[in-house]
Write a structure and sequence with these properties.
Layout lengths: L5 E6 L2 H9 L4 E4 L12 H13 L6 E5 L7 H12 L5 E5 L6 H14 L1 E7 L8 H8 L3 E5 L14 H13 L3 E4 L5 H10 L3 E4 L14 H10 L10
Parallel strand pairs: 1-2, 1-8, 2-3, 3-4, 4-5, 5-6, 6-7, 7-8
């Protein structure tokens, strides 16, 4: 694992993909922020994004995409993840909400995790159960992230302290999972969260004019990039 966390930049369209690449993002994350924390791109848009990404060659950053805001219904969750994986996106993010059906959902996703790199996303503002970390490792997931579902509820650090976040990272690493922390992070969050030791820190609002639904701003991206030393990405496609 790398000592310095990489930069995950969430982008809303192909033009922002290019800006994120030029700005030094380690993971370019395809997300529609207007549709919430897990807003998904359309299949056609994902296919276009994968074509653009492949055209960048071996030096391209890693690429991820969310499977959308899905209910914890096994068949629906797996279908949504399969739809994204079929476009060629190498890292597929799946939102996992606390539910009695969690076990059944992970069981449904396990066969897909054998062939694709799945990233489970838990939500710090919804009292996440860290007991699921081991289950994700056993199901074959490649990684796990902490985010916030309600972007009006404050940053990740308003819901979980750095001690708890450190325990999350250590437990995930014990199960062989790549780790990411996100959720309305600001420049001031970078130093304390980097010290926790995640593989990646994720940003959207801090990179944009007029908040997370605004346009990605290269100058803001440069500010974040400057706080995060470049690393060789552990999640290359």
């Amino acid at each position: 694992m790398n000592a310095a966390p990489g930069l995950l930049a969430s982008v809303a369209d192909l033009a922002e993909m290019e800006l994120a690449r030029l700005g030094g993002a380690d993971i370019i994350d395809l997300k529609q922020p207007a549709f919430g924390a897990l807003g998904a791109w359309s299949v056609d848009a994902l296919i276009s994004a994968v074509q653009l990404w492949r055209g960048w060659g071996l030096a391209a950053p890693a690429l991820s995409a969310t499977a959308g805001d899905q209910p914890m219904v096994p068949v629906l969750l797996r279908t949504a993840a399969e739809r994204v994986a079929a476009t060629g996106v190498p890292l597929v993010k799946v939102g996992l909400f606390d539910s009695p059906s969690m076990g059944a959902c992970l069981e449904a996703l396990a066969p897909l995790a054998d062939a694709h790199r799945l990233i489970g996303v838990l939500f710090a503002d919804q009292q996440p159960d860290f007991a699921v970390i081991g289950a994700l490792g056993r199901a074959g997931f490649a990684g796990i992230m902490l985010d916030t579902a309600d972007k009006k509820s404050g940053p990740l650090t308003a819901h979980l302290d750095t001690l708890t976040l450190g325990q999350f990272v250590q437990e995930a690493r014990r199960h062989g999972l790549m780790t990411g922390l996100a959720g309305s992070l600001t420049l001031d969050d970078i130093a304390p969260l980097a010290a926790v030791g995640p593989d990646y820190l994720g940003f959207r609002g801090a990179l944009c004019t007029q908040g997370r639904s605004g346009a990605l701003d290269p100058a803001r991206l440069a500010q974040v990039r400057a706080r995060l030393p470049a690393q060789a990405g552990t999640a290359t496609g």
